[in-house]
Design a protein that fits this description.
single chain; six-stranded antiparallel beta sheet; three-stranded antiparallel beta sheet; 8 helices
């Protein structure tokens, strides 16, 4: 469970890191399965853009070693403390999100962020299509990411509430044109952490992966968590951004009491 302080931090910044949530045995089991997939099933060069946009190791995305990282760890309870008890649809699969080291002759640049659910043509959705398909992200590191520019999961703090105001003025329909590029309230934060840490974000936090200038693969699994009313609420979640977050609503009310 998260503390009142952590929930208020989430409300302000749109994300929070919770260390050491997934035990080492489960982390190692998942990483072993991923490495076996890379070595045995392999990857075709022509598929790499799709893998980066959707998921690597497609054949193991719903394996118990992967989905139990959510189902059988405190991540489920943490998610319910934010979205409400019984309100979180248990995901049947995860995105396996790998970031490989860059070519030696390429310099690391600042990451560029995005919102999920905008059709790009490579992410399984056509350009011009957009949808709000989930309420929260849970990103679990499966190996240590000790310093920036190591493929870090990267967030733009406060961008969730910024875009709520932006969509109230411009209309969420602007997303049909692709990712809007207004100046955001804060620059990117590259999240460092250890294997077993989880980063939880609001669906409307701008995010990305930093370039990986390290010598190691960045291993993570990502769960897209849906409130039971996510589909019914639909596009309203772009502007009424706490509708599906009773745990945050209560924390804010208590903080203002």
């Amino acid at each position: 469970m998260l503390t009142q302080k952590q929930k208020l931090e989430f409300h302000e910044n749109g994300y929070i890191t919770v260390p050491g949530v997934v035990p080492k045995l489960m982390v190692d089991s998942a990483r072993k399965m991923i490495n076996h997939s890379i070595g045995a099933v392999g990857m075709h060069e022509g598929d790499l853009e799709k893998f980066r946009a959707q998921s690597y190791c497609d054949e193991i995305r719903n394996a118990p070693q992967i989905v139990d990282i959510f189902r059988k760890t405190p991540i489920h309870n943490i998610a319910e403390s934010l979205l409400g008890e019984g309100n979180v649809q248990v995901p049947g699969s995860a995105q396996i999100a790998l970031r490989f080291p860059m070519p030696l002759d390429r310099d690391a640049k600042e990451p560029g962020g995005h919102l999920d659910g905008l059709g790009s043509g490579t992410n399984g959705m056509a350009k011009g299509i957009y949808r709000r398909g989930f309420t929260a992200l849970a990103v679990v590191y499966l190996a240590d990411v000790p310093e920036p520019y190591s493929g870090n999961f990267t967030v733009w703090p406060k961008s969730h509430s910024f875009f709520a105001d932006y969509f109230k003025k411009e209309g969420h329909e602007i997303l049909a044109n692709g990712m809007p590029r207004p100046e955001l309230p804060e620059g990117p934060t590259q999240v460092v952490g250890k294997a077993g840490d989880v980063v939880l974000t609001h669906h409307q936090v701008v995010h990305s992966a930093a370039p990986n200038a390290s010598a190691d693969i960045r291993y993570a699994v990502i769960f897209r968590l849906r409130h039971v009313d996510c589909e019914e609420n639909g596009y309203d979640g772009y502007t009424d951004i706490w509708r599906e977050w009773p745990g945050i609503q209560a924390a804010v009310e208590n903080g203002n009491a």
